[in-house]
Design a protein that fits this description.
disordered C terminus, 3 helices, mainly alpha, single chain
């Protein structure tokens, strides 16, 4: 997270975004592993809608990580939308425009 895009951003924000990117990358790897080892039913015993949600995270997690690393507000929106509200992670955020 270096370069002009991140210049002037406080260190604590950089650390928070970096940690979030790592979490999304870990989630991506977990879903890829589940798909690789799960065969035709990667999440046995789960309802179809939940299986579709988890499989979709295989694409949405790395996209959110990339957008966050690129300092795009869409990464906040996507990451918040892809995170269930009961996981203990924040699902809302405020975005201040740079002037």
């Amino acid at each position: 997270m270096r370069g002009r895009r991140w210049s002037g951003v406080p260190g604590r924000i950089r650390v928070a975004v970096g940690a979030t990117v790592v979490v999304f990358a870990y989630g991506t790897m977990a879903h890829l592993f589940q798909l690789a080892t799960g065969g035709t039913d990667p999440y046995p015993g789960l309802p179809v809608w939940l299986t579709v949600y988890f499989v979709s995270l295989t694409v949405l997690d790395p996209l959110a990580a990339a957008l966050l690393a690129a300092r795009r507000a869409a990464g906040l929106v996507l990451g918040s939308a892809a995170t269930p509200p009961r996981t203990g992670t924040p699902t809302t955020c405020s975005i201040r425009r740079r002037e």
